[in-house]
Amino acid sequence: MTGQGIPEGYLDGYARILADASATGRRLTRDELESRRVLGERAADAGHGLRALVGAHLAATRAHWPAAHAASVDGALAAAEQAVDAFAEGYERAQRLAVRQEEAARREFIDDLLYGRSDLGLLAERAERFGLRLSYEHAVAVAQGPDGYEEGHAVPREVERALIGRFGDRSILVTTKDGRLVCIAPGDQDEVLAFFAKRAYAATDGGRVAIGRPQAGPGGVVQSYEEALNALDLAARLELDEPVLRAADLLVYPVLTRDRQAMADLVLNTLGPLRQARGGARPLLETLTVFFDAGCVAAEAARRLALSVRALTYRLERIHQLTGADPADPVHRYTLQTAVIGARLLDWPDKEF
Description:
The chain has 3 domains: about 90 residues, no CATH class; about 110 residues, Alpha-Beta Plaits (2-Layer Sandwich); about 90 residues, PucR C-terminal helix-turn-helix domain (Arc Repressor Mutant, subunit A). It has 14 helices and 5 strands. A hairpin with a 2-residue loop joins strand 2 and strand 3. The longest helix has about 45 residues. The termini are far apart.
């Protein structure tokens, strides 16, 4: 062992190279340089610090310093510089390879985790390497911005730094998938996902964030992830304005569309007659949508549609005439509003069924 606690094997041949090069003034040969690189790779793989390794080389240089005349001193300095540089190059090469392998392993794990493709027992074992204990509940938040984000992009790095700075190591995993930011956190730490949503919304320049419900077990992560994705899809279809959506608050929509054929029948039977109106169904469907979003307050709905209250009232009367359902009647209103939600979820009237 050297004085720095580094095995002397990483200095094999260094004294001979130093003595020979300093005596002749020659540069190191290709084989000598490659031997230093190989030793550097081995030292990196063994987990030794580069600082200590350089210190060991300097100590060996002092120990084997040639007789003090100008030619040998210059040769020794040049040889030491080349040797240490080649050693550091090999060390860094091994580190880059290790980083790439670690990134590949992390990417493969995340893909398996979010797609549920791996054996759940093996997946749980692999998860511990990345700080997750899948036997517990986990919840997943997904942020979608105007741009796609990949691993290593400045935006996910910024969000991850903020989370670690705020919460430290709490079994949190921040990653990317299909251009979106993803945060996996223990299910009982809602404050983590709330903070992620806030930072991701800002970092993605006004993107949208959806948070799945906490789910238990090795398959819980993929369930929560899919809930978050479905919430983002619902928000786009329903044109929801909220920047942060929780799957738990949107459960009524999957229920409404669980029987797709029944919902399609309701849309066609209730709203189909609107296609007889001048300009087709869309203007009157938009009127109903805004009217319900405004809490059925005519003045507010008219303002949002840039209409007079009289013009809005005329449109509502026309809807009543065509459909037989009165938007002002509480019983009819429920049917109409459910049909409007179904139309938005099924992209009617753009898509016929």
